[in-house]
Design goal:
alpha/beta, Rossmann fold, 2 domains, six-stranded mixed sheet, four-stranded parallel sheet, 10 strands, 15% strand, globular, binds pyridoxal-5'-phosphate, TrpB-like_PALP, threonine racemase activity, TrpB-like_PALP_sf, ATP binding
């Protein structure tokens, strides 16, 4: 494990060059209402408006564009609760290679449909009884496919870091950055960009309260494994951090915070009604934590990554009625 070569900000820069012209440079939105609520200057990096609806396109496209001729011909295999699946399927389509996607039985309908729509070959497994990593490795072995994991891969981390890089290039240095935490690809890439472009900025990783393995790992110093957490934040239902993401998080992240499902629903309602933005539950984690920290953010310049917007409208309506 000590021999892992962690990605650096140079890898984020290389990723930015590879995705240029393929990924959107997503807009940064501000809201007077939010600034008044928090007493801070807040910048939302809108990855809910990224291609396929989430930042994951960045990491997927970066990883796939590094395949050699042989790997391209056999294609890619990925396991994902949704957004990584769509990202890999779309990136593979753009790069002209086949994609096999392993998805949980309870993945949101819209995400399964979108993955198929991008031409991905979808294989379904039971999230609570089967090991998706083993299924992925078997398929990879049998058909010579290259497995690209959703977060624990240097090229994925470097690609995800391009969102924060774009944010800092637009806003200049910030005092605090909030981003969701699942397996840690987004936050570790964001932390690499932060340490290079805004070194004094605090970096907060935010995970669902129901599954705070990241917080436990951060505080204890070793990777904690948990059961699949039951939360509406389906993009962050991970069981553990990765071997690449954990050391970067320990080194470069300031703290790991949590938010409840009820807080996420409040944020979704706010984004839809006040900012005309559809943000999926997981995408709201950063803002939910910033609201909790309101007292210490007074007068500060704050970046928040809205990581994705993929929630079907039926589900969206159901969540709005719950609370
Ligand atoms: C995957 C995902 C996350 C979590 O990202 P990690 O790199 O696994 O930490 C957060 N938000 C959305 C919308 C996602 O799809």
């Amino acid at each position: 494990m000590n021999t892992l070569t962690l990605p650096t900000f140079d890898d984020v820069l290389a990723a930015a060059a590879r995705i240029e012209g393929y990924a959107h440079k997503t807009p940064v939105f501000t809201s007077k209402t939010v600034n008044e609520e928090l007493g801070a200057e807040v910048f939302f990096k809108c990855e809910n408006l990224q291609r396929m609806g989430a930042f994951k396109f960045r990491g997927a496209f970066n990883a796939l564009s590094r395949f050699d001729e042989h790997q391209r011909r056999a294609g890619v295999v990925a396991f994902s609760s949704g957004n990584h699946a769509q990202a890999i399927a779309l990136a593979a389509k753009l790069l002209g290679m086949p994609a096999t996607i392993i998805m949980p039985h309870d993945a949101p309908v819209a995400k399964v449909a979108a993955t198929k729509g991008y031409g991905g070959n979808v294989v379904i497994y039971d999230r609570y009884t089967e090991d998706r990593e083993q299924i992925g490795r078997e398929l990879a072995g049998k058909h010579g496919l290259t497995l690209i994991p959703p977060y624990d891969h240097p090229d994925v981390i470097a690609g995800q870091g391009t969102a924060a890089k774009e944010l800092f290039e637009e806003t200049g240095p910030l005092d605090a950055l909030f981003a969701p935490l699942g397996g840690g690809g987004l936050i570790s890439g964001s932390a690499l960009a932060t340490r290079a472009l805004s070194p004094d900025c605090a970096v907060y990783a935010v995970e669902p309260e129901a599954g705070n393995d990241g917080q436990q790992s951060f505080r204890s110093g070793s990777i904690v494994h948990i059961e699949t957490p039951k939360t509406i934040a389906d993009g962050a239902q991970t069981q553990h951090l990765g071997n690449y993401t954990f050391p970067i998080i320990r080194r470069d992240v300031t703290d790991v915070l949590t938010a409840s499902d009820a807080e996420l629903i409040d944020c979704m309602r706010f984004f839809a009604s006040r900012m005309k933005l559809i943000v999926e539950p997981t995408g709201c984690l950063g803002f939910a934590a910033a609201r909790q920290m309101k007292a210490s953010l007074k007068g500060k310049r704050v970046g928040i990554i809205l990581s994705g917007g993929n929630v079907d409208l039926d589900r969206f309506s159901e969540l709005m009625l719950q609370h």
